[in-house]
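REQUEST ID: PR-0412
SUBMITTED BY: lab tech R.K.
PRIORITY: routine
TASK: structure prediction, single protein chain
INPUT:
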Amino acid sequence: MLRQPINIVFMNKNNVVNTMTDAFAILENVFDKGYTGFVTGPSRTSDIERVLNLGVHGPSRLILFAVDGMEDGLIKMAKPEYKS
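STATUS: complete
OUTPUT:
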């Protein structure tokens, strides 16, 4: 299998934007060179016999958590209270 079954992402909810134009405006200020990829659905690939296979590369499920209170890539969690 070339893909992991599930991909779980935690992100700051303030990083959600409305359009691809907004996303690229942010990315151009963060990265001066490199590669950006947007996953829009299952992969599509075919072999020399033109047999189409869907979803061979990448996760079959994506779970994204847009979290409030996440700074510097870390989730600020309340300390658990232990009762004896």
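NOTES: The chain has one domain: 6-75.
REVIEWED BY: pending
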